[in-house]
């Protein structure tokens, strides 16, 4: 990538962050108030890890 493309990409990223900032703040406030439900995260993550180990073992 040329330097000009990287500058344009960086500027677009910063503009996107400023544009999405109100929604990000709201989402962070809601996540702090929400009840933690770790089982719904750990179960699929564990299944993916087991599946990847299975795929590695099959090679």
Radius of gyration: 20 Å
Percentage beta strand? under 5%
Mean pLDDT: 93
**Straight-line distance between termini:** 36 Å
Q: Number of helical runs?
A: 2
The biggest sheet, with number of strands, parallel, antiparallel or mixed sense and barrel status, is:
none
Provide structural commentary.
- The chain has 59 residues and is mainly alpha-helical.
- The chain has a domain at 1-34.
- The chain is built from two helices and no strands.
- The chain starts with a helix and ends with a helix.
- The mean pLDDT is 93.
Quick gist of this model?
The protein has 59 residues and is mainly alpha-helical. The protein contains two helices and no strands.
Question: How is this fold's topology laid out?
Answer:
Elements (H helix, E strand, L loop, with lengths): L2 H31 L5 H20 L1
Descriptive key words:
59 residues
